[in-house]
Each structure stands twice: as structure tokens, then as C-alpha cells.
Amino acid sequence: MTDKIIVHGIEYLIKRTKRSSLGITIERDGMVTINTPLRADPKAIESFVSSKTIWIRQKLAYKSQTNRERVRRDFVSGQGFLYLGRSYRLRLINNGRVVNQKGVSTSLLLHNGYFELLEQEKERARKHFIKWYKKQTEEQLRIRIPRYANRIGVEVKDFRVLDLGNRWASCGKKGTLNFSWRTVMSPIQVFDYILVHEMAHMLERGHTKNFWRTVSRVIYDYEEHKIWLQEHGAELDI
């Protein structure tokens, strides 16, 4: 159940769930969500928000500063593209073929430290990159989900790699994880933090003390990765 309110000029999305306390989430796009118990009193919500106004404005200003410039790609030779935290330059292939390890022709390939793209496919470059990133994200999830499932004590029944806009990932109610293809552009330690974060939500829907305790038990330095995402999240795009 969701609704919206405006307090001191700031719009808030009210999300009512089966939780026992009030909480605040600020998304990358600046949307502020107030997570509340199902029967929370509207006046209590407004009072809570008012008491956090200064903190919220500081967070919004910080996000605006760190995400002030979105990545713009022209898909020209020499331009860098991220994969697992490293930047690889693009090389346009004018003649010949781009062939993967299985000898199959493809439009885009990471080879010998370069992304190789057929010149004639430049107009569809973004589509090819997204397809490639989706495949890499799927491969990383197949490898890494089993690594953490037993440690956290959950069963991931399925996962999907999608374009989630300003979200890195989400946890479905039936044991399905949704991941943004952009996540595989981050360093693998950050990728693991995002994965563990969502798997922990399978036990705790909100960002409770127990939730963060679960995350820290698996990734002790999770706060560093959380800050990295806040500071570099805008770079994970094409």
C-alpha cells in the first residue's frame, strides 16, 4: 500500500508494510520513501518526517552532488566501458569479424583487454552492450548465489536481470531476486554486497538492526561498498 505526502516542500512516498517502526530510504533518483507499519497514524508519520527534515535535505544534496553528471556514451574507439570495476577501451572493427572463444561470430566481445564492436553495429551499440552486460550478470549470479545462500540461510528460487532504473536490485516475495544489468559494471566486492543485501531481505524486509547484522556477518566491510555505490553509482551506465 503506497501513498504520497509533501512536508516542507519535499515529496515523500509512503510505503506501508508489515514492519514495527518507521524508516527512511532515499533512492538514487532522489525519491524519498517512508517505510511505515500498516496502521501508522498519518500525524505520527508527518511528525517523524518533520524531525528528519534537515538530515533528509543533507542526504538529497549529497546525492545531487555525487550524481550530478550522468554518463554519456558516443561508442567511439578509445572510449572506456566498465566491467567488474575495470575500464576497458572500445575498439571498432572496420573489416573482418568479431569471433568469441567458441568460434561464433558476434557483434560485441571483450577480447585482449578491449571491447571489440563491429563498425556497422555502432548505431545499435548500446543494445549490444546491454545484452552483453545482462549475460555477464547472469553468469556472476549463477556462480555467487550458491556461495552466499547457505551462509545467510535462504533459498533463491530464481533470478532475473532487468533494467531497474535507479535501483540496483530487488527481492521478490517468492524467493526471486531481480538484478540490474548495471551491477556487473561495479567491482566484484560491490556486486557481492548488492547480492548479499537482497538475500538478507529474504529474511528481513526492512533495514532493521537484524538485517544489517546479517549483512555484516557475511560482508564485514559492507559500509565501504555502500559508500562506493553512493559516490560512483552514476558512473555505472552507458
Could you explain how this protein is built, in words?
This protein is α/β, with parallel strands linked by helices and 238 residues long. It has helices at residues 42-51, 53-66, 125-152, 188-200, 209-218, 222-232, and strands spanning 2-7, 10-17, 23-26, 32-37, 80-83, 86-93, 98-99, 105-106, 108-111, 114-118, 158-162, 169-171, 176-180. The strands form 4 sheets. The chain has a 4-stranded mixed sheet with strand order 1-2-4-3, with helices on one face. A 4-stranded mixed sheet has the order 5-6-10-9, with helices on one face. A 3-stranded mixed sheet has the order 11-13-12, with helices on one face. Strand 7 (98-99) and strand 8 (105-106) form a beta hairpin. The chain is globular, with a radius of gyration of 20 Å.
Structure in a nutshell:
With 238 residues, this protein is an alpha/beta fold.
Query: Given the C-alpha coordinates, what overall shape results?
Result: globular
Q: How many independent structural domains?
A: 3
Rg (C-alpha, Å) = 20 Å
The residue ranges in which pLDDT falls below 50 over 5 or more consecutive positions are: none
Short descriptors:
6 helices, 3 domains, 238 residues, Zincin-like, 13 strands, four-stranded mixed sheet, alpha/beta, single chain
Write the layout of secondary structure elements.
Layout lengths: L1 E6 L2 E8 L5 E4 L5 E6 L4 H10 L1 H14 L13 E4 L2 E8 L4 E2 L5 E2 L1 E4 L2 E5 L6 H28 L5 E5 L6 E3 L4 E5 L7 H13 L8 H10 L3 H11 L6
Parallel strand pairs: 2-4, 6-10, 11-13
Antiparallel strand pairs: 1-2, 3-4, 5-6, 7-8, 9-10, 12-13
Helix pairs in contact: 3-4, 4-5
